[in-house]
Amino acid sequence: MAIPVQRYKRHTILGDDTSPELIYLKREPGHERTYTLEEAAAEIETTGALSQEDVIHVMKSFVRRLRIILTQGDKLKVDGLGTFFTTFCCDGAQEEKDCTIRNIRKVNVRFAVDNSLRLVNDSIASTRGGENNVQFYLKGESETSNSSNNQPGGNNDDDNASGGNDNGGGFIDPAA
User: Fold this and answer.
1) Sheet holding 82-90: strands in order across?
2) Rounded to a whole number, what is the largest CA-CA distance in the chain?
3) Cα distance between residue 85 and residue 69, in whole Å
4) Per residue in 110-134, is it b (16+ CB within 10 Å) or e — as a string?
5) CB 27 within 8 Å of CB 3
6) What is the pLDDT of residues 146-173, one digit of tens each?
7) For the chain, does the N or the C end have fewer beta carbons within 10 angstroms?
């Protein structure tokens, strides 16, 4: 299934109304879904040998163990998914004696995706229709204005059938 995107105008320097405006793409609001652990477990149950309760138990155990590993300052590498690790933000000090652990003001959990999970824009990928390719379509783009499957960012016939309404294209002006 393709992901709907829309065009919008934005100043190149945010907050500076004199900077030139450029046109960018962003995801169409309201077209993504947040899965709960229970919903994902129900879908895993239909394709695997584990029950929904087993999947939920394993995932909750995974999160508990991940928390312990990260609070010890270690990393967790999950093959096919990526690596979880921590970083922190620290305020600088002029004197060495003033630079203490109390200068650490924020601790972050980071995630580095595994190469096998990296996603690619299908319209510019060297292998079309690959397993990690993501298809996008311009929401509201007319089929007659850009119907070629070979043009980057273009609509194909499947895209309009998957929910794109044909309202003639255009821009979203955040100032309006």
Assistant:
1) 76-78, 82-90, 104-113
2) 69
3) 9
4) eeeeeeeeeeeebbeeeeeeeeeee
5) yes
6) 434 433 444 333 433 333 333 334 445 5
7) C
Side-chain half-sphere of 71: how many Cα atoms within 13 Å? 6
Tokens of 82: 């990526």
Q: Is 59 exposed, middle or buried (0-12, 13-18, 19+ CB in 10 A)?
A: middle
Global pTM reads 0.64
Tell me what the pLDDT averaged over the chain comes to. 80
Nearest to 119 by CA among 105, 130, 110, 111: 130
What is the number of helices (H) and of strands (E) in the chain? 3, 8
What single letter denotes the amino acid at residue 54?
D
The two tokens of residue 50 are 């584990």
The two three-digit tokens of residue 145, written as one number: 């204005």
- The pLDDT tens digits of the residues spanning 4-35 come to 888 888 888 888 999 999 988 888 888 888 88
Q: Give pLDDT tens digits for 63-114.
A: 999 999 999 999 999 999 999 999 999 999 899 899 998 999 999 999 999 9
